[in-house]
What we know:
By secondary structure, the chain is of the alpha+beta class.
Amino acid sequence: MILEMKVPSPGESITEVEIAEWLVQDGDYVEKDQAIAEVDSDKATLELPAEESGTITLKASEGDAVDVGSVVCLIDTSAAKPKDNSDSSASDSKKVLKNEAKISKPSESTYASGTASPAAKKILAEKNLISSDVIGTGKDGRITKDDAIKAVPSMGKKVETKDRGVTRTKLSMLRRKVAERLVSAKNETAMLTTFNEVDMSPIFELRKKYKESFKEKHGVSLGFMSFFTLSVVRALRLFPAVNSMIDGKEMISYDFCDISIAVSGPKGLMVPVIRNAEKLSFLGIESEVKRLAIRAREGQITVDEMTGGTFTISNGGVFGSMLSTPIINPPQSGILGMHNIIERPVAVNGKVEVRPMMYVALSYDHRIIDGKESVGFLVAIKEALESPHEILMDNDVKKALDL
């Protein structure tokens, strides 16, 4: 029996995916539920499992954009499983040869390379560009209308690449969508950023005292994210405009806090969501952060787990960032940037002391969030982080940490 494997829908509103990588070769024997391909949507990279065991025939190539519901491969379920590993070894050899070919084979030019379509020629002429200024992405290197639209005139002499290596890699659908969203956020919002600094001494003391007992009892670490998430939840309640979004001529406000957390994954930035953070304790948040981070880094995160957030927290400090202006994650109206913690001399009660200090930044959409609200929101974050015993733990640390 020949089984047609079709592209499943990764999530609502997604109609097209891209074959990022085939994990098997044409003619391989695959087991049921074995991952056979990685597919990119505009929101996530997902694995495609085999629906049945059998011999596979590929019907799409890496890099192809295919519609949801389209047939991407056939599985002959009547094929017998190989008795030994010889076929597997041969398959592995094929994969090695294929990868070597990808690396060593130079790109070939054809008669069509650099040829602009009539529509592309007109656009290039309007921009005072010539075909040699643009790299074509169409078939056989042709310059498409889209290539011409995206072409940017050089501000100086064209870079000479003769006798020097240049690598050209196609951006994944996920990376292209992230790029579009970031540019959209810059162009379509009145984005401003306000800054403050936080003395992290109280949190350092709490973690030093309770970190081991917390991990021993609950199996997760007591990190910084739970303190920041609960501080954000409190600040969102005090300043509900920050927990709002613009939809046309209306402002939508939420009475719940779905907090997006930016996580670096193998395919780029992922932003999974902690649902109903206002109902979670320190343990609940740390457990959810750990679960989502593992799923994102292992490529198992789903589209549903990354959509619908009302506010975002981004921790650039884990990479050593001292200060940044984070970009809003549309359609949200605010994002909090955390940074690295550095011991600095500060004035405390008229004396200079060395304290672990962190800069924090709030980028916000000025169309619905005024300066007074944005500054007040960030001050509320600072207050909660510098007085966690009183504000976040209600003066009962052990109860708050469930110890």
